[in-house]
Design goal:
This protein is mainly α and 360 residues long. Helices cover 76% and strands 0% of the residues. The protein has 14 helices and no strands. The protein has helices spanning 7-49, 57-65, 72-107, 119-133, 145-165, 172-196, 199-210, 218-237, 239-245, 249-254, 259-281, 287-299, 303-327, 336-353. Helix 1 (7-49) runs parallel beside helix 13 (303-327), helix 4 (119-133) packs antiparallel against helix 7 (199-210) and helix 4 (119-133) runs parallel beside helix 11.
């Protein structure tokens, strides 16, 4: 009679194969993250090297690691002028990509991002009020009226979307449609502002909405970096729950996750990321859409790898965009928002028209 004893070695062998496969998968994903980090560092060095006074990569590396070996002029140009701009590209790219990644996770929609849900449009409207008419939503904040206006309007937009989503019968698809409606509302209000504003104010509003890294400063960089450093651990703390959310609300609830509570908390955090980024550099679209999808293709849905991967992909895309903005037309720095839109629009159309929905 068969006792089943001989099945134990086969079960142990299968378990060992499973552990080996998992370890190799983890190592592969760690190597992917390391490769992204290396590519990001190379892009940063290239960005620092380009400009009216070009430097070699060797001179850039010397200025970074042994600044005493380069001239005073090179140190001033690289550290005081170019470094804040180059690092702001990394921080803003990472912030927008992480915001888009988590919006796609909590809404289970591949088209969700700060740009498509109207948060960026709300921030642009707040900044336009200050640029065109000098309106300060918080009257005491005179020195930073433009970024504060943008931040407040972005947060109000996010909360409006959330409050509307709390109504009975509202689905995740409805939330996305609400975001698209917000985009049209704010675009109409922006057109109204430009109609009544002076010619000089209109030029300022239009340039701001194109997105530009050129006005980045060390204080602005530290604020944006501080917000990113604060939000990332809070999102990582919910890593397991966010991974479970990809299985659907019902399955996540059966695993002990509270989808509505988690969705609200994550929405507030990602709105903060997007608002700060847009407040300092203007409207930069499609980073929050493209970055997460590249990270998902490379690293999968596990938030332990997907979250840092989305940050690295977004930072890399915007850093490469910064490089392209300097080299496409020699002697001219193209607004970064134009570059990201040229890259993002074809990708957006591909997502809309594609029938490959296996990952969603």
């Amino acid at each position: 009679m068969h006792t089943g004893v001989d099945t134990v070695p086969s079960e142990q062998s299968a378990a060992e194969e499973g552990r080996t496969f998992y370890r190799s998968l983890v190592v592969r994903r760690q190597l992917t993250l390391a490769a992204l980090a290396l590519a990001l560092f190379l892009s940063l060095c290239t960005d620092l090297a380009l400009g009216p006074a070009p430097f070699s990569i060797g001179e850039v590396l010397a200025a970074l690691f042994t600044p005493e070996d380069v001239s005073q002029q090179a140190r001033v140009i690289l550290w005081e002028i170019r470094m804040p701009v180059a690092l702001m590209a990394l921080v803003v790219g990472a912030s927008l990509s992480v915001a888009g990644a988590q919006m796609q996770t909590i809404l289970s929609n591949p088209l969700a991002s700060p740009f498509t849900l109207g948060i960026s449009a709300g921030a642009s409207f707040g900044a336009a009020l200050a640029l065109a008419f000098g309106v300060a939503i918080i009257p005491t904040a005179v020195d930073y009226v433009i970024p504060i206006n943008a931040f407040v309007m972005a947060m109000l937009t996010a909360f409006a979307i959330h409050l509307l989503s709390m109504r009975r019968g509202v689905t995740i698809e409805t939330i996305v449609l609400l975001g698209i409606a917000m985009v049209f509302i704010f675009n109409s209000l922006m057109a109204l502002i430009q109609f009544f504003a002076s010619q000089q104010a209109v030029a300022a509003v239009v340039f701001w909405t194109m997105g530009s890294l050129t006005k980045a400063t060390w204080p602005k960089l530290w604020i944006a970096l501080g917000v990113l450093a604060m939000v990332m651990p809070l999102l990582a703390r919910h890593g397991w729950a966010l991974t479970a959310m990809r299985l659907g609300d019902a399955k996540a609830e059966s695993l002990g996750v509270k989808p509505r509570t988690l969705r609200l908390e994550v929405l507030v955090l990602v709105s903060l990321l997007a608002a700060i980024a847009v407040a300092f550099v203007g409207t930069i679209g499609f980073i929050g859409l493209v970055g997460p999808h590249i990270a998902r293709l490379l690293l999968g849905e596990d938030q332990r790898f997907f979250l840092p991967g989305a940050a690295l992909c977004g930072a890399l895309i915007l850093s490469i965009g910064s490089v392209l903005s300097k080299v496409l037309i020699p002697g001219t720095i193209i607004p970064i928002g134009i570059i990201t839109s040229l890259v993002g629009i074809p990708f957006f159309l591909f997502l809309v028209l594609s029938n490959k929905k296996a990952s969603w």
